[in-house]
Write a structure and sequence with these properties.
This protein is α/β, with parallel strands linked by helices and 255 residues long. It has a single domain, classed as 3-Layer(aba) Sandwich (Rossmann fold). It is 39% helix and 15% strand. The protein has an eight-stranded mixed sheet, sandwiched between helices. The protein starts with 9 loop residues before the first strand and ends with a strand. The protein binds NADP nicotinamide-adenine-dinucleotide phosphate (NAP).
């Protein structure tokens, strides 16, 4: 493991044991950050952290189920004791609600027949979990000289894109679970940015694109590393960078 310096930034990525979160964790570690690999399963978290350490990164597993507020508070306590502050929070953990089916192929998310319990479960992770984790670690982010929060959203969160009957999303199945959860995440991003602007905390949402991961049975056309690039860019913004924005690799995404 590399030796840590007092200036070395500390980053927490939720759901970092696989997929886009794991790739983002790897890229942040490659930039010299100490990376806390948030994972709800301690064994999967340790395996991912060990792989990042084997690649030369400074990575540590941190047990964190974003739907379990007790683990969020315990994770914040561990960060406080071990590092004293947090510089970067990537709220990446997310579920589609439909198992290993692309959100666009999820017949069970069609609004008129959706199971309300599934909607609740998706919001529990993708929306309420973000509030729980963000608020648990916010006092530690406030101790950073350059705090950054990145909420991993989706192009599907864009009302402008999904509401256009002639637009690129017109062919997709309507969704009452995943898509609205990411739209709510957009609203949360703006509200946190508004509250924290005066404190210098930059809060932005990232749309990684269609990435081949377990969440879509690897049907995406981008690699996790490609999807993670915009996440890492927003996690490493210079002072004076944007806040309250929504970005993909191609640039700003319309709300
Ligand atoms: P993935 O490979 O399925 O990874 C999801 C990660 O979230 C896993 O580490 C999973 O942990 C974790 N997770 C789920 N529920 C959790 C919870 N309650 N507490 C902690 N961790 C939890 O999917 P992915 O494609 O990389 O997705 C990552 C993020 O990108 C999600 O927010 C997703 O909505 C977003 N996104 C993905 C795409 C895409 O095309 N793939 C497009 C747009 C947005 P386990 O291993 O324990 O299940």
């Amino acid at each position: 493991m590399s030796e840590r310096t007092a200036q070395q930034k500390i980053a927490l990525v939720t759901g970092a044991n696989k997929g886009i979160g794991r790739a983002a964790a790897g890229q942040l570690a490659a930039r010299g950050m100490t990376v806390l690999v948030g994972a709800r399963d301690p064994r999967r978290g340790e395996e991912a952290a060990a792989a990042l350490r084997a690649a030369g990164g400074d990575a540590h597993a941190l047990t964190l189920d974003v739907t379990d507020h007790t683990t969020a508070r315990a994770a914040a306590q561990r960060i406080r004791e071990r590092f004293g502050r947090l510089d970067v929070l990537v709220n990446n953990a997310g579920v589609t609600g439909s198992g290993q089916v692309s959100p666009q192929d999820a017949h069970d998310q069609v609004p008129s027949s959706v199971d309300l319990n599934m909607v609740r479960e998706v919001f529990e992770t993708n929306v309420f979990g973000v509030i729980a984790v963000t608020n648990a670690v916010l006092p530690l982010l406030r101790r950073s000289p350059a705090p950054r929060i990145v909420n991993v959203s989706s192009h599907a969160a864009s009302l402008a894109l999904t509401g256009d009957p002639d637009g690129p999303f017109a062919a997709l199945l309507p969704s009452a679970a995943y898509t609205p959860s990411k739209a709510a995440l957009s609203a949360l991003t703006v509200q946190y940015a508004n509250e924290l602007r005066k404190d210098g905390v930059l809060v932005n949402a990232a749309a990684p694109g269609f990435v081949a991961t377990d969440s879509n049975d690897h049907t995406g056309h981008l690699t996790p590393a490609q999807g993670a690039a915009v996440v890492v860019r927003l996690a490493t913004l210079d002072a004076g960078g944007p806040t309250g924005g929504f970005f993909g690799e191609e640039g700003p995404v319309p709300w």
